[in-house]
Amino acid sequence: MFQHRSIASLRRELLRNGQLQALCGFTGTVPPAPVYSRFLRQLRTQTGKLQVVFERLTSELGEKLPDFGQCLALDGKAISNHARPTRKEGAAQAADGRRETDADWGVKVYQGQHAHGTAWEKQVSWFGVRLHRLVDAQYELPVAFKVTRAASEVRCARQLLDALQERQPWLLERGEQFLADRGYADSKF
């Protein structure tokens, strides 16, 4: 919500913002910086459990909101990482907190046509990951997501929908509209 880029920035916000402290469950003291790093390291080991919690919450929304999932929208988002990339191509790097080992270089190509009819193309590259998300367009809430290295949006969209069909088929059965930008337009998809 506050878009802090570092733990230090988040801690400064917590120290100054008593309401945020209370919302996070901190009573009068803000934990030191190493606590956040340890928490994030432990959180990364629990992705399976977090997925189960996410799916349970999605199911509860489906029970309480009968039109939840009728209009689904799909999109990918490049998330830049300002950490130091791995230097050598294909080199095995241990996750030691000093560099990013999960991210990769990605390229997004934009194409179009000028008003006078000539074609244009623009390439944007970044170092980071890509968040693939399927959301309920009416409630603006996620129903499925996948975080990958900088990978193809179309290929990951297929994987996301296959996983949703396997784990929560009621969402796809309930769907009446499916929206995606033209980056997903290929004949098979």
List keywords for this structure.
single chain, 189 residues, alpha+beta, five-stranded mixed beta sheet, 6 helices, 36% helix, globular
Structure commentary:
- The chain has helices at 7-16, 18-24, 33-44, 47-64, 153-167, 169-174; strands at residues 71-80, 104-113, 119-136, 141-149, 177-180.
- By secondary structure, the protein is α+β, with helices and mostly antiparallel strands.
- Strands 1, 2, 3, 4 and 5 form a five-stranded mixed beta sheet that branches.
- A hairpin with a 5-residue loop joins strand 2 and strand 3.
- The mean pLDDT is 85.
List the helices and strands and how they pair.
Layout: H1 7-16, H2 18-24, H3 33-44, H4 47-64, E1 71-80, E2 104-113, E3 119-136, E4 141-149, H5 153-167, H6 169-174, E5 177-180
Parallel strand pairs: 1-5
Antiparallel strand pairs: 1-3, 2-3, 3-4
